[in-house]
């Protein structure tokens, strides 16, 4: 832990550090909670994953651009920029990160006091608040002019994912391919449907905007009354379709079970939660969404859940090199649980579309 304290020392921390301890369930970065004495703010310290994020300076610069824009907006709307947007803590040499002697990248931000994260939506009200949070986030960024660096080319681009998929299958690095024939069929049988959707993004009918791209429920802060405070984990802010944010949020909020549930009976789409999130989201975004975006909102949940089945399965076949895992078959367990969710969404697709149409009609009146 002394080593961690030394890292913290490299940043412009206002008060004396009392403790640094691991925090949270991130699959990619390592996160630590930094407690301080003397009444100053606490902080979050992160070791960013440099195998996944190949250009961390540009990633941090994207986060700076976005948080600055959000803070300006929040101030102009009479809000509290310290609670409604993340605040980056600079290193002692005024950089957005610190690189240690092993080449690891570290970044810090201020911990927002009395904020809470959730691993599941639980209630319709919380889902509504989450939807509002994502809608507001996108709408405040809708007029941002400063360009972002595309630090994760192809992140939610299914065409790119299929290129990776072909390579991973061809390589079959750890000989797991024959064990997952059925799962490979799940992917192959829906390929065309997903590529057809992606054509609308490629031809511009569905535009790209500044989006978060990792909107699962634990990437948003709530207060103790369940009101949304702000969106966190901004590593993946990119220009992409808003549908990726909506779909990824539904994948996480509206799942009755866990992302890695073993008992598949627990996994299904929760239409009440879906409705709550969609209501909160649309109330804050309908003013800038076009007709095609509205038309494909329900489908985006299937798209992103499918992509997640693909990503977990691909990582399993590839020998678990991307996601952190807690057991030997964790990525396969995740694949099955996400596929169960996808199947449930497919069964309930007409209802999901109906819910969106009703909300859109009531807001357009
Ligand atoms: C990762 O970093 P974290 O745990 O919030 C991943 C997302 C996946 C998610 C699955 C950069 O998110 O894309 O959807 O796990 N982030 C990256 O739970 O790959
Ligand atoms: Mg996260």
Tell me the overall shape: globular
Number of domains: 2
What CATH architecture label of the largest domain applies? Alpha-Beta Complex
CATH topology of the largest domain: Aminoglycoside 3'-phosphotransferase, Chain: A, domain 2
The largest sheet, given as strand count, sense and whether it forms a barrel, is: 6 strands, antiparallel
Q: Can you tell me the CATH class of the largest domain?
A: Alpha Beta
Mean of residue pLDDT values: 96
Structure in words:
The model has no long low-confidence stretch (mean pLDDT 96). The protein has two domains: 2-110, Phosphorylase Kinase, domain 1, CATH 3.30.200.20; 124-364, Aminoglycoside 3'-phosphotransferase, Chain: A, domain 2 (Alpha-Beta Complex), CATH 3.90.1200. It has 13 helices and ten strands. The longest helix has 21 residues, at 56-76. The protein is α+β, with helices and mostly antiparallel strands and 365 residues long. The radius of gyration is 20 Å and the shape is globular. The relative contact order is 0.12. Strands 1, 2, 3, 4, 5 and 6 form a six-stranded antiparallel β-sheet that branches. 2-acetamido-2-deoxy-1-O-phosphono-alpha-D-glucopyranose is lined by residues 26-28, 52, 214, 216, 219, 233, 236, 259, 308.
């Amino acid at each position: 832990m002394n080593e961690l304290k030394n890292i913290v020392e490299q940043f412009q921390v206002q008060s004396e550090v009392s403790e640094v301890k691991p925090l949270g369930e991130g699959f990619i970065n390592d996160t630590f909670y930094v407690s301080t004495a003397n009444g100053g703010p606490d902080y979050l310290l992160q070791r960013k994953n440099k195998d996944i994020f190949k250009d961390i300076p540009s990633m941090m610069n994207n986060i700076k651009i976005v948080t600055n824009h959000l803070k300006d907006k929040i101030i102009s709307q009479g809000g509290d920029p310290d609670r409604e947007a993340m605040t980056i803590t600079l290193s002692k040499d005024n950089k957005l990160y610190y690189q240690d002697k092993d080449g690891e990248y570290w970044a810090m931000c201020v911990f927002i006091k009395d904020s809470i994260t959730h691993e599941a939506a639980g209630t319709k009200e919380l889902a509504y608040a989450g939807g509002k949070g994502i809608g507001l986030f996108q709408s405040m960024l809708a007029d941002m002019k400063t360009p972002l660096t595309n630090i994760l080319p192809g992140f939610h681009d299914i065409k790119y994912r299929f290129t990776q998929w072909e390579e991973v299958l061809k390589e079959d690095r750890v000989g797991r391919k024959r064990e997952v024939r059925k799962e490979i069929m799940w992917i192959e049988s829906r390929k065309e449907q997903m590529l057809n959707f992606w054509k609308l993004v490629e031809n511009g009918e569905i535009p790209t905007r500044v989006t978060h791209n990792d909107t699962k429920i634990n990437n948003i802060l709530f207060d103790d009354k369940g009101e949304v405070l702000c969106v966190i984990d901004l590593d993946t802010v990119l220009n992409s379709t808003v549908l990726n944010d909506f779909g990824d949020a539904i994948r996480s909020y509206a799942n009755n079970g866990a992302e890695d549930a073993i008992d598949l009976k627990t996994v299904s789409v929760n239409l009440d939660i879906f409705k709550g999130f969609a209501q909160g989201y649309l109330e804050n975004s309908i003013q800038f969404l076009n007709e095609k975006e509205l038309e494909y909102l329900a489908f985006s949940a299937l798209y992103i859940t499918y992509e997640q089945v693909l990503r977990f399965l691909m990582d399993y076949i590839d020998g678990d090199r991307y996601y952190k895992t807690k057991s030997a078959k964790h990525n396969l367990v995740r694949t099955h649980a996400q596929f169960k969710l996808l199947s449930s969404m497919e069964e309930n697709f007409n209802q999901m579309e109906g819910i969106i149409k009703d909300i859109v009609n009531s807001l357009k009146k």
